[in-house]
Amino acid sequence: MTEYFEVHERDGAARLGELRLETPRTTPALVGDLLEDGGSRWSADRELPTGDESALTVLPHRGFPGGTADPVRESFAVDYPDVAFPSVAVVSSAGPIDHGTDAYVVSDVQSIVGHGAALVEAVVRLRETIPSDTALIFSGVATPRNVALLAYAGVDAFDATRATIKGTQGKYLTTESEYFLEDLEELPCSCPACQGPRGEFTRADCAEHNRNALAAELAVVRQRIRDGRLRDYIEGQARHDQWLTAAMRELDSQWGYLEERTPILREGDLDAATEDTLRRVEIQRFADRVTSRYRNRFDAPLVLVPCSARKPYSESQSHTQFHRAIQWRAHLVSMTSPIGVVPQELETTYPAQHYDTVVTGRWSADEKDFVARILERYLERNEYPYVVAHVPDEGYRDIVERVEAELDLDVTYTVDRDAHPTDDGSLEALNEALAGEPAYQKREREHNTVRAMADYLLGDGAGDELFETFQTTSRYPRLQVRDSDETQFATMVPQYGTLSFTLEGAKRWVESDAPTKRVEIDGFVPQGSVLAPGVVDADADIRVGDEVVVEGPRAFGIARAEMFGREMVESTRGVACEIRHVEEL
Protein backbone atom coordinates (compact mmCIF):
# COMPACT_ATOMS: atom_id res chain seq x y z
CA MET A 1 0.00 0.00 0.00
CA THR A 2 1.36 3.39 -0.95
CA GLU A 3 0.36 6.76 0.42
CA TYR A 4 2.96 8.75 -1.44
CA PHE A 5 2.54 8.03 -5.15
CA GLU A 6 -0.54 8.45 -7.31
CA VAL A 7 -1.05 8.03 -11.06
CA HIS A 8 -3.19 10.76 -12.62
CA GLU A 9 -3.00 10.08 -16.37
CA ARG A 10 -1.94 7.19 -18.57
CA ASP A 11 -0.63 6.89 -22.09
CA GLY A 12 -0.04 3.20 -22.65
CA ALA A 13 2.60 2.07 -20.16
CA ALA A 14 3.71 5.68 -19.59
CA ARG A 15 2.11 7.44 -16.63
CA LEU A 16 1.77 10.99 -15.39
CA GLY A 17 2.07 10.58 -11.64
CA GLU A 18 2.60 12.55 -8.48
CA LEU A 19 5.09 11.94 -5.71
CA ARG A 20 3.03 13.16 -2.75
CA LEU A 21 5.87 14.47 -0.66
CA GLU A 22 6.14 17.64 1.40
CA THR A 23 6.81 19.36 -1.92
CA PRO A 24 4.93 17.29 -4.55
CA ARG A 25 6.64 16.41 -7.82
CA THR A 26 5.02 15.38 -11.09
CA THR A 27 6.55 12.36 -12.79
CA PRO A 28 8.21 11.29 -15.07
CA ALA A 29 10.85 13.48 -13.46
CA LEU A 30 14.33 13.73 -12.02
CA VAL A 31 14.23 12.68 -8.38
CA GLY A 32 17.90 12.41 -7.47
CA ASP A 33 17.58 15.34 -5.09
CA LEU A 34 14.71 13.58 -3.32
CA LEU A 35 16.49 10.27 -2.64
CA GLU A 36 17.96 9.70 0.81
CA ASP A 37 20.05 6.51 0.80
CA GLY A 38 19.81 4.37 3.94
CA GLY A 39 23.00 2.58 2.89
CA SER A 40 24.14 -0.81 1.65
CA ARG A 41 24.11 -3.81 3.94
CA TRP A 42 26.99 -5.39 2.02
CA SER A 43 29.55 -3.41 3.98
CA ALA A 44 27.83 -3.20 7.37
CA ASP A 45 24.54 -3.50 9.20
CA ARG A 46 22.48 -0.37 8.92
CA GLU A 47 20.11 1.30 11.30
CA LEU A 48 16.63 1.96 9.97
CA PRO A 49 16.53 5.64 8.90
CA THR A 50 14.06 7.92 10.60
CA GLY A 51 12.72 9.27 7.29
CA ASP A 52 10.20 12.04 6.72
CA GLU A 53 7.81 13.30 4.05
CA SER A 54 10.34 15.63 2.45
CA ALA A 55 12.24 12.81 0.72
CA LEU A 56 12.12 9.27 -0.64
CA THR A 57 14.13 7.17 1.78
CA VAL A 58 15.93 4.20 0.25
CA LEU A 59 15.77 1.56 2.96
CA PRO A 60 19.00 -0.32 3.85
CA HIS A 61 19.56 -2.74 1.00
CA ARG A 62 21.75 -5.17 -0.89
CA GLY A 63 22.00 -4.50 -4.59
CA PHE A 64 22.78 -7.28 -7.07
CA PRO A 65 24.52 -6.66 -10.41
CA GLY A 66 23.25 -8.15 -13.65
CA GLY A 67 23.89 -11.87 -14.01
CA THR A 68 23.79 -12.65 -10.28
CA ALA A 69 22.69 -16.26 -9.79
CA ASP A 70 19.26 -16.87 -8.27
CA PRO A 71 20.60 -18.75 -5.20
CA VAL A 72 22.90 -15.83 -4.38
CA ARG A 73 20.08 -13.30 -4.61
CA GLU A 74 17.83 -15.48 -2.52
CA SER A 75 20.49 -16.09 0.13
CA PHE A 76 21.29 -12.42 0.62
CA ALA A 77 17.79 -11.00 0.14
CA VAL A 78 16.77 -8.17 2.46
CA ASP A 79 13.51 -8.02 4.37
CA TYR A 80 12.14 -4.50 4.14
CA PRO A 81 10.14 -3.32 7.16
CA ASP A 82 6.85 -1.43 7.00
CA VAL A 83 7.55 2.24 7.67
CA ALA A 84 5.40 5.33 8.06
CA PHE A 85 7.38 7.54 5.66
CA PRO A 86 7.94 7.54 1.87
CA SER A 87 10.13 4.49 1.23
CA VAL A 88 12.09 2.90 -1.59
CA ALA A 89 13.23 -0.73 -1.98
CA VAL A 90 16.14 -1.85 -4.13
CA VAL A 91 15.24 -4.79 -6.39
CA SER A 92 16.84 -6.82 -9.15
CA SER A 93 15.15 -6.90 -12.54
CA ALA A 94 15.86 -10.64 -12.70
CA GLY A 95 13.79 -11.45 -9.61
CA PRO A 96 11.79 -8.44 -8.40
CA ILE A 97 9.71 -8.76 -5.24
CA ASP A 98 6.82 -6.65 -3.96
CA HIS A 99 8.10 -5.21 -0.68
CA GLY A 100 5.17 -2.88 -0.02
CA THR A 101 7.20 0.29 -0.53
CA ASP A 102 6.18 3.42 -2.43
CA ALA A 103 8.91 3.17 -5.06
CA TYR A 104 11.50 0.73 -6.39
CA VAL A 105 15.07 1.33 -7.58
CA VAL A 106 16.53 -1.26 -9.95
CA SER A 107 20.01 -2.42 -8.92
CA ASP A 108 21.09 -3.96 -12.25
CA VAL A 109 19.78 -1.24 -14.52
CA GLN A 110 23.22 -0.65 -16.08
CA SER A 111 23.17 -4.14 -17.59
CA ILE A 112 19.79 -3.75 -19.30
CA VAL A 113 19.86 -0.19 -20.68
CA GLY A 114 21.49 -0.23 -24.10
CA HIS A 115 19.99 -3.57 -25.13
CA GLY A 116 16.44 -3.40 -26.49
CA ALA A 117 15.24 -6.92 -25.66
CA ALA A 118 16.86 -6.95 -22.20
CA LEU A 119 15.30 -3.60 -21.30
CA VAL A 120 11.81 -4.62 -22.34
CA GLU A 121 11.96 -8.01 -20.63
CA ALA A 122 13.17 -6.34 -17.44
CA VAL A 123 10.58 -3.55 -17.38
CA VAL A 124 7.72 -5.93 -18.14
CA ARG A 125 8.90 -8.28 -15.38
CA LEU A 126 9.19 -5.40 -12.93
CA ARG A 127 5.84 -3.88 -13.81
CA GLU A 128 4.08 -7.23 -13.59
CA THR A 129 5.51 -7.78 -10.09
CA ILE A 130 5.39 -4.47 -8.26
CA PRO A 131 1.98 -2.84 -7.61
CA SER A 132 0.56 -0.56 -10.31
CA ASP A 133 0.47 2.45 -7.98
CA THR A 134 4.17 2.43 -7.10
CA ALA A 135 6.94 4.36 -8.82
CA LEU A 136 9.70 2.64 -10.80
CA ILE A 137 13.06 4.43 -10.62
CA PHE A 138 16.03 3.98 -12.97
CA SER A 139 19.21 5.49 -11.54
CA GLY A 140 22.42 6.26 -13.43
CA VAL A 141 21.20 5.71 -17.01
CA ALA A 142 18.98 8.59 -18.16
CA THR A 143 20.09 10.89 -20.98
CA PRO A 144 18.12 13.37 -23.08
CA ARG A 145 18.20 10.84 -25.93
CA ASN A 146 16.84 7.77 -24.11
CA VAL A 147 14.58 9.10 -21.37
CA ALA A 148 11.45 9.37 -23.56
CA LEU A 149 11.68 5.69 -24.51
CA LEU A 150 12.30 4.68 -20.89
CA ALA A 151 9.20 6.60 -19.80
CA TYR A 152 7.21 5.06 -22.66
CA ALA A 153 8.24 1.61 -21.41
CA GLY A 154 6.88 2.40 -17.94
CA VAL A 155 9.70 3.99 -15.92
CA ASP A 156 8.51 6.85 -13.68
CA ALA A 157 11.60 8.55 -12.29
CA PHE A 158 15.30 9.06 -12.92
CA ASP A 159 18.35 10.88 -11.68
CA ALA A 160 20.83 13.04 -13.58
CA THR A 161 23.93 11.04 -12.62
CA ARG A 162 24.78 9.78 -16.11
CA ALA A 163 24.15 13.15 -17.74
CA THR A 164 26.37 14.85 -15.15
CA ILE A 165 29.20 12.36 -15.57
CA LYS A 166 29.05 12.73 -19.34
CA GLY A 167 29.39 16.47 -18.92
CA THR A 168 32.47 16.16 -16.70
CA GLN A 169 33.95 13.93 -19.43
CA GLY A 170 33.43 16.72 -21.95
CA LYS A 171 30.46 15.07 -23.68
CA TYR A 172 27.67 17.42 -24.70
CA LEU A 173 24.26 15.72 -24.80
CA THR A 174 21.24 16.53 -26.93
CA THR A 175 18.00 14.70 -27.60
CA GLU A 176 19.44 13.19 -30.76
CA SER A 177 23.18 12.79 -30.20
CA GLU A 178 26.30 13.08 -28.05
CA TYR A 179 29.18 15.40 -29.00
CA PHE A 180 32.70 15.88 -27.74
CA LEU A 181 33.09 19.51 -26.73
CA GLU A 182 36.09 19.98 -28.98
CA ASP A 183 33.95 19.04 -31.99
CA LEU A 184 31.41 21.81 -31.37
CA GLU A 185 32.07 25.14 -33.04
CA GLU A 186 28.90 26.54 -31.48
CA LEU A 187 26.51 25.42 -28.78
CA PRO A 188 23.16 24.21 -30.19
CA CYS A 189 21.21 25.17 -27.08
CA SER A 190 19.91 28.28 -25.36
CA CYS A 191 19.74 27.00 -21.77
CA PRO A 192 21.39 29.16 -19.04
CA ALA A 193 24.57 27.08 -19.11
CA CYS A 194 25.04 27.75 -22.82
CA GLN A 195 24.61 31.54 -22.73
CA GLY A 196 28.28 32.47 -22.52
CA PRO A 197 30.92 32.52 -25.28
CA ARG A 198 31.87 29.15 -26.74
CA GLY A 199 35.50 29.62 -25.74
CA GLU A 200 34.57 30.00 -22.06
CA PHE A 201 32.31 26.95 -21.94
CA THR A 202 33.77 24.52 -19.39
CA ARG A 203 33.10 20.91 -18.51
CA ALA A 204 31.21 22.11 -15.46
CA ASP A 205 29.01 24.15 -17.81
CA CYS A 206 28.64 21.04 -19.97
CA ALA A 207 27.40 19.03 -16.99
CA GLU A 208 24.90 21.76 -16.17
CA HIS A 209 23.72 21.86 -19.77
CA ASN A 210 23.27 18.08 -19.80
CA ARG A 211 21.10 18.27 -16.69
CA ASN A 212 19.07 21.10 -18.23
CA ALA A 213 18.60 19.14 -21.45
CA LEU A 214 17.46 16.08 -19.54
CA ALA A 215 14.97 18.08 -17.47
CA ALA A 216 13.65 19.79 -20.61
CA GLU A 217 13.16 16.46 -22.36
CA LEU A 218 11.21 15.14 -19.39
CA ALA A 219 8.95 18.19 -19.59
CA VAL A 220 8.27 17.31 -23.24
CA VAL A 221 7.51 13.72 -22.23
CA ARG A 222 5.05 14.84 -19.55
CA GLN A 223 3.20 17.05 -22.01
CA ARG A 224 3.08 14.24 -24.56
CA ILE A 225 1.54 11.96 -21.95
CA ARG A 226 -1.07 14.62 -21.15
CA ASP A 227 -1.87 14.83 -24.86
CA GLY A 228 -1.97 11.03 -25.23
CA ARG A 229 0.65 11.26 -27.97
CA LEU A 230 3.90 9.99 -26.51
CA ARG A 231 4.03 7.12 -29.03
CA ASP A 232 3.90 9.60 -31.94
CA TYR A 233 6.95 11.32 -30.45
CA ILE A 234 8.77 8.05 -29.75
CA GLU A 235 8.51 6.87 -33.35
CA GLY A 236 10.76 9.78 -34.33
CA GLN A 237 12.86 10.06 -31.19
CA ALA A 238 13.85 6.37 -31.11
CA ARG A 239 15.44 6.71 -34.56
CA HIS A 240 18.41 8.50 -33.02
CA ASP A 241 19.85 5.30 -31.56
CA GLN A 242 19.55 1.76 -32.91
CA TRP A 243 18.96 0.17 -29.52
CA LEU A 244 16.10 2.58 -28.83
CA THR A 245 14.42 1.57 -32.09
CA ALA A 246 14.94 -2.06 -31.16
CA ALA A 247 13.43 -1.45 -27.72
CA MET A 248 10.36 0.24 -29.22
CA ARG A 249 9.81 -2.74 -31.52
CA GLU A 250 10.38 -5.20 -28.69
CA LEU A 251 7.73 -3.34 -26.69
CA ASP A 252 5.33 -3.67 -29.62
CA SER A 253 5.83 -7.43 -29.47
CA GLN A 254 4.76 -7.40 -25.80
CA TRP A 255 1.08 -7.29 -26.76
CA GLY A 256 -0.32 -8.27 -23.36
CA TYR A 257 1.73 -5.68 -21.47
CA LEU A 258 0.98 -2.73 -23.74
CA GLU A 259 -2.60 -3.64 -24.69
CA GLU A 260 -3.70 -3.87 -21.07
CA ARG A 261 -2.40 -0.36 -20.43
CA THR A 262 -3.53 1.33 -23.66
CA PRO A 263 -6.87 3.20 -23.62
CA ILE A 264 -9.54 2.15 -26.11
CA LEU A 265 -9.95 5.79 -27.14
CA ARG A 266 -8.09 9.10 -27.00
CA GLU A 267 -8.88 12.73 -27.65
CA GLY A 268 -5.74 13.35 -29.72
CA ASP A 269 -5.06 12.25 -33.28
CA LEU A 270 -2.83 9.31 -34.12
CA ASP A 271 0.06 10.24 -36.41
CA ALA A 272 0.86 7.44 -38.86
CA ALA A 273 4.24 8.66 -40.09
CA THR A 274 6.32 5.45 -40.07
CA GLU A 275 5.78 1.77 -40.74
CA ASP A 276 6.21 1.15 -37.00
CA THR A 277 2.69 2.59 -36.70
CA LEU A 278 1.39 -0.71 -38.08
CA ARG A 279 2.53 -2.38 -34.86
CA ARG A 280 0.85 0.07 -32.50
CA VAL A 281 -1.61 -1.38 -30.02
CA GLU A 282 -4.45 0.86 -31.24
CA ILE A 283 -3.96 -0.33 -34.83
CA GLN A 284 -3.59 -4.01 -33.98
CA ARG A 285 -6.54 -3.88 -31.58
CA PHE A 286 -8.83 -2.32 -34.19
CA ALA A 287 -7.81 -4.87 -36.80
CA ASP A 288 -8.30 -7.73 -34.35
CA ARG A 289 -11.74 -6.60 -33.26
CA VAL A 290 -12.94 -5.95 -36.80
CA THR A 291 -11.88 -9.46 -37.85
CA SER A 292 -13.00 -11.32 -34.72
CA ARG A 293 -15.97 -9.35 -33.32
CA TYR A 294 -17.57 -7.40 -36.16
CA ARG A 295 -20.21 -9.17 -38.27
CA ASN A 296 -21.78 -7.82 -41.42
CA ARG A 297 -25.57 -7.73 -41.12
CA PHE A 298 -26.44 -6.32 -44.56
CA ASP A 299 -27.92 -8.64 -47.19
CA ALA A 300 -26.10 -6.78 -49.93
CA PRO A 301 -22.91 -6.97 -52.01
CA LEU A 302 -19.63 -5.59 -50.71
CA VAL A 303 -17.99 -2.53 -52.24
CA LEU A 304 -14.35 -1.91 -51.33
CA VAL A 305 -13.26 1.72 -51.62
CA PRO A 306 -10.10 3.69 -50.77
CA CYS A 307 -9.96 5.78 -47.62
CA SER A 308 -10.03 9.57 -47.63
CA ALA A 309 -7.96 12.25 -45.98
CA ARG A 310 -11.04 13.70 -44.31
CA LYS A 311 -12.50 11.83 -41.35
CA PRO A 312 -15.01 10.39 -40.93
CA TYR A 313 -14.85 9.12 -44.49
CA SER A 314 -18.53 9.73 -45.25
CA GLU A 315 -17.99 13.48 -44.89
CA SER A 316 -15.29 13.55 -47.58
CA GLN A 317 -15.93 14.64 -51.15
CA SER A 318 -14.80 11.32 -52.61
CA HIS A 319 -17.00 9.17 -50.37
CA THR A 320 -19.96 11.45 -51.02
CA GLN A 321 -19.53 10.59 -54.71
CA PHE A 322 -19.23 6.88 -53.90
CA HIS A 323 -22.47 6.96 -51.88
CA ARG A 324 -24.30 8.71 -54.72
CA ALA A 325 -23.28 5.94 -57.09
CA ILE A 326 -24.02 3.13 -54.63
CA GLN A 327 -27.33 4.56 -53.37
CA TRP A 328 -27.35 2.23 -50.33
CA ARG A 329 -27.45 -0.86 -52.52
CA ALA A 330 -24.20 -2.28 -51.12
CA HIS A 331 -22.17 -2.45 -47.94
CA LEU A 332 -19.25 -0.02 -48.02
CA VAL A 333 -15.89 -1.00 -46.52
CA SER A 334 -12.87 1.31 -46.74
CA MET A 335 -9.31 0.06 -47.21
CA THR A 336 -6.55 2.06 -45.58
CA SER A 337 -3.06 1.98 -44.19
CA PRO A 338 -2.41 1.79 -41.30
CA ILE A 339 -5.90 0.80 -40.10
CA GLY A 340 -6.63 -2.11 -42.45
CA VAL A 341 -10.33 -2.29 -43.34
CA VAL A 342 -13.09 -0.10 -41.91
CA PRO A 343 -16.75 -1.13 -42.27
CA GLN A 344 -19.00 1.90 -42.75
CA GLU A 345 -20.65 1.31 -39.34
CA LEU A 346 -17.30 1.78 -37.56
CA GLU A 347 -16.00 4.80 -39.47
CA THR A 348 -16.22 7.01 -36.37
CA THR A 349 -14.81 4.42 -33.95
CA TYR A 350 -11.36 5.17 -32.56
CA PRO A 351 -8.89 5.18 -34.27
CA ALA A 352 -10.69 5.06 -37.65
CA GLN A 353 -11.54 8.78 -37.62
CA HIS A 354 -8.55 9.88 -35.53
CA TYR A 355 -5.49 9.02 -37.60
CA ASP A 356 -3.49 11.06 -40.07
CA THR A 357 -1.09 9.34 -42.43
CA VAL A 358 1.60 10.34 -44.88
CA VAL A 359 0.15 10.32 -48.40
CA THR A 360 2.61 9.51 -51.19
CA GLY A 361 0.44 7.36 -53.45
CA ARG A 362 2.89 4.50 -52.99
CA TRP A 363 2.42 1.52 -50.70
CA SER A 364 5.29 -0.26 -48.99
CA ALA A 365 5.50 -4.04 -48.95
CA ASP A 366 4.74 -4.08 -45.21
CA GLU A 367 1.62 -1.97 -45.70
CA LYS A 368 0.36 -4.23 -48.47
CA ASP A 369 1.01 -7.35 -46.41
CA PHE A 370 -0.78 -5.91 -43.38
CA VAL A 371 -3.90 -4.68 -45.18
CA ALA A 372 -4.09 -7.85 -47.31
CA ARG A 373 -3.94 -10.00 -44.19
CA ILE A 374 -6.73 -8.01 -42.52
CA LEU A 375 -8.90 -8.01 -45.66
CA GLU A 376 -8.47 -11.77 -46.02
CA ARG A 377 -9.48 -12.40 -42.40
CA TYR A 378 -12.44 -10.05 -42.81
CA LEU A 379 -13.72 -11.86 -45.93
CA GLU A 380 -13.24 -15.26 -44.32
CA ARG A 381 -15.55 -14.17 -41.51
CA ASN A 382 -18.15 -12.25 -43.54
CA GLU A 383 -20.05 -13.58 -46.56
CA TYR A 384 -21.34 -11.44 -49.43
CA PRO A 385 -23.26 -12.25 -52.62
CA TYR A 386 -20.38 -10.74 -54.57
CA VAL A 387 -17.53 -8.27 -54.16
CA VAL A 388 -16.93 -5.03 -56.07
CA ALA A 389 -13.54 -3.34 -55.81
CA HIS A 390 -13.82 0.36 -56.57
CA VAL A 391 -10.16 1.09 -55.93
CA PRO A 392 -7.26 2.70 -57.79
CA ASP A 393 -4.47 0.68 -59.35
CA GLU A 394 -1.55 1.53 -57.07
CA GLY A 395 -1.46 -0.47 -53.85
CA TYR A 396 -5.18 -1.01 -53.39
CA ARG A 397 -5.71 -3.21 -56.45
CA ASP A 398 -2.57 -5.21 -55.69
CA ILE A 399 -4.00 -6.04 -52.26
CA VAL A 400 -7.45 -7.00 -53.56
CA GLU A 401 -5.99 -9.20 -56.30
CA ARG A 402 -3.78 -10.97 -53.77
CA VAL A 403 -6.77 -11.73 -51.52
CA GLU A 404 -8.95 -12.61 -54.51
CA ALA A 405 -6.46 -15.30 -55.52
CA GLU A 406 -5.97 -16.57 -51.97
CA LEU A 407 -9.70 -16.98 -51.30
CA ASP A 408 -10.65 -17.96 -54.87
CA LEU A 409 -13.06 -15.05 -55.29
CA ASP A 410 -14.41 -13.43 -58.42
CA VAL A 411 -14.07 -9.69 -57.80
CA THR A 412 -15.57 -7.06 -60.10
CA TYR A 413 -13.22 -4.10 -60.67
CA THR A 414 -14.90 -0.80 -61.58
CA VAL A 415 -11.85 1.46 -61.93
CA ASP A 416 -9.59 1.11 -64.96
CA ARG A 417 -5.88 0.83 -64.20
CA ASP A 418 -5.14 4.33 -65.52
CA ALA A 419 -8.27 5.92 -64.00
CA HIS A 420 -9.31 7.39 -60.64
CA PRO A 421 -12.26 6.20 -58.49
CA THR A 422 -13.97 9.60 -58.72
CA ASP A 423 -13.79 9.82 -62.52
CA ASP A 424 -17.19 9.91 -64.20
CA GLY A 425 -16.48 6.66 -66.01
CA SER A 426 -15.45 4.89 -62.81
CA LEU A 427 -18.53 6.07 -60.91
CA GLU A 428 -20.77 4.98 -63.78
CA ALA A 429 -19.14 1.55 -63.78
CA LEU A 430 -19.76 1.29 -60.04
CA ASN A 431 -23.42 2.20 -60.54
CA GLU A 432 -23.79 -0.42 -63.28
CA ALA A 433 -22.10 -3.13 -61.19
CA LEU A 434 -24.91 -2.76 -58.65
CA ALA A 435 -27.76 -2.62 -61.17
CA GLY A 436 -30.84 -4.40 -59.94
CA GLU A 437 -29.80 -4.46 -56.30
CA PRO A 438 -32.44 -3.14 -53.86
CA ALA A 439 -31.54 -0.30 -51.50
CA TYR A 440 -31.67 -0.98 -47.78
CA GLN A 441 -33.51 1.44 -45.53
CA LYS A 442 -32.23 4.13 -43.19
CA ARG A 443 -33.60 2.19 -40.20
CA GLU A 444 -31.51 -0.85 -41.16
CA ARG A 445 -28.36 1.27 -41.54
CA GLU A 446 -28.82 2.84 -38.12
CA HIS A 447 -29.66 -0.41 -36.36
CA ASN A 448 -26.69 -2.21 -37.88
CA THR A 449 -24.42 0.65 -36.79
CA VAL A 450 -25.56 0.35 -33.17
CA ARG A 451 -25.15 -3.42 -33.18
CA ALA A 452 -21.73 -3.25 -34.84
CA MET A 453 -20.47 -0.81 -32.21
CA ALA A 454 -21.71 -3.10 -29.44
CA ASP A 455 -19.88 -6.04 -31.04
CA TYR A 456 -16.70 -3.99 -31.36
CA LEU A 457 -16.78 -2.61 -27.82
CA LEU A 458 -18.14 -5.56 -25.84
CA GLY A 459 -17.53 -8.74 -27.79
CA ASP A 460 -18.68 -11.00 -30.59
CA GLY A 461 -22.48 -11.24 -30.63
CA ALA A 462 -23.05 -8.46 -28.11
CA GLY A 463 -25.01 -6.36 -30.63
CA ASP A 464 -27.69 -8.99 -31.11
CA GLU A 465 -27.81 -9.89 -27.41
CA LEU A 466 -28.25 -6.27 -26.28
CA PHE A 467 -30.26 -4.84 -29.15
CA GLU A 468 -32.61 -7.51 -30.44
CA THR A 469 -35.53 -5.07 -30.54
CA PHE A 470 -35.10 -1.31 -30.32
CA GLN A 471 -35.55 1.94 -32.19
CA THR A 472 -33.20 4.81 -32.95
CA THR A 473 -33.93 8.50 -32.64
CA SER A 474 -31.97 11.67 -33.41
CA ARG A 475 -29.59 11.81 -36.37
CA TYR A 476 -26.41 9.95 -37.22
CA PRO A 477 -23.76 10.22 -35.79
CA ARG A 478 -25.62 11.09 -32.55
CA LEU A 479 -28.05 8.21 -32.56
CA GLN A 480 -30.04 7.48 -29.42
CA VAL A 481 -31.13 3.92 -28.70
CA ARG A 482 -34.60 3.50 -27.17
CA ASP A 483 -37.10 0.76 -26.43
CA SER A 484 -40.62 0.74 -27.83
CA ASP A 485 -41.83 2.65 -24.76
CA GLU A 486 -39.24 5.39 -25.45
CA THR A 487 -36.93 4.35 -22.59
CA GLN A 488 -33.42 5.38 -23.60
CA PHE A 489 -30.72 2.71 -23.34
CA ALA A 490 -27.68 4.25 -24.97
CA THR A 491 -26.34 7.16 -26.99
CA MET A 492 -23.78 7.07 -29.76
CA VAL A 493 -20.77 9.28 -28.94
CA PRO A 494 -19.65 10.73 -32.29
CA GLN A 495 -16.23 11.90 -31.07
CA TYR A 496 -15.08 8.31 -30.47
CA GLY A 497 -17.66 6.12 -32.22
CA THR A 498 -18.65 4.42 -28.96
CA LEU A 499 -21.87 3.75 -27.08
CA SER A 500 -22.63 5.50 -23.80
CA PHE A 501 -25.14 3.56 -21.70
CA THR A 502 -27.87 4.95 -19.48
CA LEU A 503 -28.79 3.32 -16.17
CA GLU A 504 -31.58 1.39 -17.91
CA GLY A 505 -29.08 0.37 -20.59
CA ALA A 506 -26.72 -0.91 -17.90
CA LYS A 507 -29.51 -3.04 -16.42
CA ARG A 508 -30.30 -4.41 -19.84
CA TRP A 509 -26.60 -5.14 -20.33
CA VAL A 510 -26.19 -7.20 -17.14
CA GLU A 511 -29.44 -9.09 -17.79
CA SER A 512 -28.29 -10.08 -21.30
CA ASP A 513 -25.79 -12.74 -22.34
CA ALA A 514 -23.44 -10.11 -23.74
CA PRO A 515 -19.95 -10.00 -22.16
CA THR A 516 -20.13 -7.60 -19.21
CA LYS A 517 -17.35 -5.47 -17.72
CA ARG A 518 -18.04 -5.22 -14.00
CA VAL A 519 -16.49 -3.25 -11.14
CA GLU A 520 -17.45 -4.47 -7.68
CA ILE A 521 -17.35 -1.76 -5.00
CA ASP A 522 -17.68 -1.60 -1.24
CA GLY A 523 -20.81 -0.58 0.65
CA PHE A 524 -21.17 3.04 -0.43
CA VAL A 525 -23.01 5.10 -3.04
CA PRO A 526 -20.44 6.78 -5.32
CA GLN A 527 -20.89 10.38 -6.31
CA GLY A 528 -18.90 11.48 -9.35
CA SER A 529 -16.00 9.03 -9.05
CA VAL A 530 -15.12 5.63 -7.68
CA LEU A 531 -11.68 5.79 -6.07
CA ALA A 532 -9.43 2.75 -6.20
CA PRO A 533 -9.61 2.03 -2.43
CA GLY A 534 -13.36 1.51 -2.83
CA VAL A 535 -12.93 -1.21 -5.47
CA VAL A 536 -13.34 -4.77 -4.20
CA ASP A 537 -12.85 -6.49 -7.56
CA ALA A 538 -12.86 -5.71 -11.27
CA ASP A 539 -12.88 -7.73 -14.48
CA ALA A 540 -9.39 -8.22 -15.85
CA ASP A 541 -10.40 -7.29 -19.41
CA ILE A 542 -11.41 -3.72 -18.48
CA ARG A 543 -9.42 -1.09 -20.35
CA VAL A 544 -9.21 2.67 -19.83
CA GLY A 545 -12.18 4.22 -21.63
CA ASP A 546 -14.43 1.16 -21.39
CA GLU A 547 -18.04 1.34 -20.29
CA VAL A 548 -18.26 -0.52 -16.97
CA VAL A 549 -21.10 -1.59 -14.71
CA VAL A 550 -20.53 -0.60 -11.07
CA GLU A 551 -22.14 -2.86 -8.49
CA GLY A 552 -22.07 -2.89 -4.69
CA PRO A 553 -24.23 -3.67 -1.68
CA ARG A 554 -25.72 -0.18 -1.78
CA ALA A 555 -25.35 1.01 -5.36
CA PHE A 556 -25.73 0.13 -9.04
CA GLY A 557 -24.36 2.37 -11.78
CA ILE A 558 -22.71 2.84 -15.14
CA ALA A 559 -19.29 4.46 -15.49
CA ARG A 560 -16.26 4.95 -17.70
CA ALA A 561 -13.05 3.23 -16.64
CA GLU A 562 -10.06 5.44 -15.79
CA MET A 563 -7.80 2.48 -14.91
CA PHE A 564 -7.43 -0.98 -16.42
CA GLY A 565 -9.07 -3.75 -14.43
CA ARG A 566 -6.07 -5.15 -12.57
CA GLU A 567 -4.91 -1.66 -11.71
CA MET A 568 -8.25 -0.88 -10.08
CA VAL A 569 -7.80 -3.83 -7.75
CA GLU A 570 -4.11 -3.24 -6.97
CA SER A 571 -4.17 0.52 -6.48
CA THR A 572 -4.70 2.32 -3.20
CA ARG A 573 -4.97 5.81 -4.69
CA GLY A 574 -6.49 7.40 -7.77
CA VAL A 575 -9.76 7.41 -9.70
CA ALA A 576 -10.78 3.94 -10.87
CA CYS A 577 -13.82 5.06 -12.89
CA GLU A 578 -16.02 8.09 -13.47
CA ILE A 579 -19.69 7.54 -12.62
CA ARG A 580 -22.24 8.65 -15.21
CA HIS A 581 -25.45 7.35 -13.62
CA VAL A 582 -26.00 5.65 -10.25
CA GLU A 583 -28.92 4.56 -8.10
CA GLU A 584 -29.00 3.63 -4.43
CA LEU A 585 -30.22 0.13 -3.66
Description:
The structure is a single chain. The chain is 32% helix and 21% strand. The protein has 17 helices and 29 strands.
Features:
alpha/beta; 6-stranded mixed beta sheet; 7-stranded parallel beta sheet; 585 residues
The count of strands amounts to 29
Q: Main beta sheet, described?
A: 7 strands, parallel
Choose one word for the global shape: globular
Give the strand line-up of the largest sheet.
4-10-9-8-7-6-5
Assign a percent range to the helix content. Answer: 25-40%
Mean of the pLDDT scores? 94
Strand share of the residues? 15-25%
Tell me the structural class. alpha/beta
Number of discrete helical segments: 17
Q: What distance separates the N and C termini?
A: 30 Å
Radius of gyration: 27 Å
Low-pLDDT segments, ≥5 res: none
Architecture blueprint of SSEs:
Elements: E1 5-11, E2 14-19, E3 25-27, E4 29-30, E5 35-37, E6 56-58, H1 70-75, E7 87-91, E8 103-106, H2 116-129, E9 135-138, H3 147-153, E10 157-158, H4 161-168, E11 171-173, E12 178-180, H5 203-227, H6 230-237, H7 242-253, H8 255-261, E13 270-272, H9 281-292, E14 302-306, H10 317-326, E15 331-336, E16 340-343, E17 355-357, H11 365-381, E18 387-389, H12 393-407, E19 412-413, H13 424-433, H14 442-458, H15 462-466, E20 471-473, E21 480-482, E22 488-493, E23 498-501, H16 503-511, E24 518-521, E25 529-531, E26 535-538, E27 547-551, E28 555-561, H17 565-570, E29 575-584
Parallel strand pairs: 4-10, 5-6, 6-7, 7-8, 8-9, 9-10, 13-17, 14-15, 14-18, 18-19, 24-27
Antiparallel strand pairs: 1-2, 2-3, 11-12, 15-16, 20-21, 21-22, 22-23, 24-26, 25-29, 27-28, 28-29
Helix pairs in contact: 2-7, 4-5, 9-11, 10-13, 11-12
